[in-house]
Amino acid sequence: MVIILFIFYGFYDHEPEVSINQSKIKEALAFCKKNKMDTTICIMLDMSIHSGKNRLFVYHFKKNEIVIESLCAHGVGGGSTPLKPVFSSYCTSLGKYKVKGRSYSNWGINIHYKMYGMEKTNSNAFKRIVVLHAYTPVPNKEIFPQTLFGQSAGCPVISNEAMRKIDVLLKAKKKSVLLWVYI
């Protein structure tokens, strides 16, 4: 088990090119503490980053570093502004989510994690069946300047490889983990 975590936990063939604003990290940690969520990692999804670049990051609070980065497709609705919490919009919604509950998925590596919206901007997430999942066509490497096409009805969608790495981390958590979608 230690070897598996060692392999998946924060090893890159390169250093991440992106850093997360430290004020966002402080806010994320405070939110996790206030809501009795896991305080070792969080998942940050920066929708201001081009979809052909890594924009989903697993951040380790204690190590103060990004340990996993991934491309992330968004909902098919809304074109280049895919950020609405409305039913049938097929858009990804901004805000903080509680990630908890591993379940079967028809997509990718056949697992997903349930997402519970914690703010007005994403309060319908669970009812809309917005989940974190993989989708086989999402590549493992950046494709910029090409874009990822929307691959979901509002779910953050990542590559199979990224989902395997994130699954190792999330399966080990007793508390829910923060996933924050922001611009």
From TrEMBL:
Tell me the organism.
Pedobacter rhizosphaerae
List, alphabetically, the Pfam families matched.
YkuD_2
* This protein's name: L,D-transpeptidase catalytic domain
